[in-house]
Structure formats: C-alpha cells, structure tokens
Amino acid sequence: MLIAIFVGLLLILFLLGVAVPYALAVTAIIGMIYAGNFGIAQFGAVPMKLAAGVNSFTLLAIPFFLLAGKLMNVGGITRRIFKFCNALVGWIPGGLGQVNILASVVFAGMSGSAVADAAGLGTIEIKAMEDEGFDTEFSAGITAASSTIGPIIPPSIPLVMFGCTGGVSISQLLVGGIVPGLTCAIALGIMVAIMALRRNYPRRHFPTGKELWMLFRQAFLSLMTPVILIGGILGGVFTATEAAAVASLYALFLMTVVYHEVSWKDLVQTGREVCRETAAIMLVVAASTLYGYLITKFKIPTMVLDFFLTVSSSKYMFLLLINLFLLFVGCFMDSTAAILILTPIILPAATAFNINPVHFGMIMVFNLMIGLLTPPVGMCLYATARVSKLSFERVTKGVVPFYIPLMITLILIILFPKLTLCLTGA
Question: What pTM did the predictor assign?
Fold first, then answer.
C-alpha cells in the first residue's frame, strides 16, 4: 500500500496538473500519515528536511552552469562557434546538419542544458539551414535531437542532480559523459549523412587553410571554454562546482571585456532569469529530498529490489526493464523531476545487481534525455518549436528519424560500460 501511495498518488497528482514540488510534498505527508508517523516531532522535521535538501555546496554548480549558458546565448559566442563549425565540417554530406551536431558538442561543454542548446543555438542553426534549402522539419528535428548531447558532455546539470541525489561522485559522472556524448554525436552524424544523400541536401565547399585559420582565431577564446572546464576537471585542478564558477566567470569576461557584446541591461535580465530558474529547480530539490528520505525510511527501495529479484536475477533483464520504464516515464515527466524522484528508488537496486553507479547514472540520464524529445512532455520539442516557428506536431515528425541513432547510442552505453568508465579510472 505504501508503494501505491508514494508512486500511484504522485502520478495522479501529476496527471491532475499539480506542480512537481507540491505533488512531492503532498505525497510525502500523506504517506507519513498513513504509516502512522506523523506526530508533532515528525511535522517539525519536515521543514528541516526541505532545507537540508538545498543546503549543499555541490548544488551551487547549477546556477553557475545556467549563468554560463545564458551569457553565451546573449553574446556572440554561439555565432562564432557556428561559423567555425561550418568551415570545419560543413563540406561533409549533410552540410549544415553536421554543423548543427558539432556546434551542439562544443556548446555542450559550456551550458550543460539541452533546452538552452535548443533555444540558443537553434535560432542560428534553423535559420541558416532554411536559407541553404534544407527542409524546415529536418532542420528542427536535428536541432532538437543534437541538443540532447548537452546534458551528457560535461558540464551537465542532470548529472549533477543525479550525483547529489544518489551520493555518486559528480566529477566521475561528468568525465564519464565525454565518450558517450561523442558516440551520440557520431551516430547522429551518420544518420544525417544518410538522409542528406537520399534527399540531395546541399553542402559547402571544402575550406581553404586561410579561411579555416581566420574563423578559428575568431572562435578561439569561445572554444577554450570546454577545454578549460574538461581539462580542469580531468586534471584535478578544480571540482565540478568550482568548474561551474570558472565557466561563469570566463563567459562574463568574454562578453564584457573581450567582445563588449553584453550591456548592463542584458546582465540584469540574465541574472533575473538564472535566479528564477534556479529557484524553481531548488524547490523541486527540497521537496524531492523529503520524498526520498521517506521512501528510504519506509524501505521502498528494498521492496523494489525484491520485485526485480522475483522477476529475474539477471543484470541485463533488470537493465531492460528499467530502461523500458524510464523511456515510458520520460514521455510524461520532466527529466529533473524524474531524476530526483526515481534515483533513491532505483539506484540501490542497480548497485545490488553489481552495476557501477557512474555507469547507471549515465544510462538513466541519457535515457531521460531521449524523453526530452518524446511527446507529450518533450521540453526540447517545445523549445525547438518556438524558435523554428513550427507546430509541435511538425517538430515531432522531424525528430522521428533521429530516435534510431539515439536508441543505438543508449544500447551501446548499456552493453559497454567502458564507454562511460574508460576516463574515470573506475
């Protein structure tokens, strides 16, 4: 009955349109009342648990990564990156479709957010592709699909959330995302090339050395952002949280001192947006902490593990069932909420099946990133529809072919843990 309350009631509240943090808090309190553990002392512990959830140094990475991504969208960093990527890979079959993917890879090393990628780079990419003669649906589809690389290659807000919720090393999670992110980019690139050859899409001429060098010089300081971040984390120069602060300071330095492309009005507006989005995320974190504390106290993860053991003792059967479940969840639940709610329930079962927590975190996050492209709650679909001025249905139609490379990448991540763990030393 407790599982029915903590899972069933929560889903009902979601379907009724109750906001995620309030649904979590209501479910937790009703579960406490049902279990007979809701006295004066327990009621007083509720605000303490809510506050403890956000009282984390590691969570400081989230507002800093948000700030870095927004500063780069406001200024000309995205434009410089796009021009350089166009010269570098625009001659490959698929042309600007390949540029779209490479730009997402580079931008992924700065923002850590799929929606920020789709909204920021999408404006430039979709217009450029339409001007070159690409179908608008194809342009929107690859823009949305490639944006899922953002939360895989470090920095990554979803991986930070998973690490904080599951007590997993965030530095290892971030480093573990490099190879899977590049694998995803290669898979998407192959799909773009196949579609481009069939549809006879245009591509640019092979760049001259002089042209490539000029564009590289213009984009050099922008391209240094992921180098500084990833190199600093790999080299042990700074932690993931410190890396987020470094990214924000570097982006601010480029925009105000080097490029002079951000006004005080832009900075104030960006600060307001970051504060608003951070507050919304932290409210979910606080409520999910209370929820996670209670499901652990009532031994629900143990019940879930017992269920999986009754179905099968095979690790791969467990992974199959979990991934099918996560793909279903991703259709109806925001990825942040899903990570915060499900990690305390599923991760103990995964470790019991001898699955490395870093590997499982990558599986879970990448799976939920595919959910960003699945209706009815596909946030990247909505963001891309807004910047492309297409209907939600047409953007979804454009994304459909790219489910294939994304699912292939997910299967590779599941079957080959070394893709995730090869750079972590695990």
Answer: 0.80
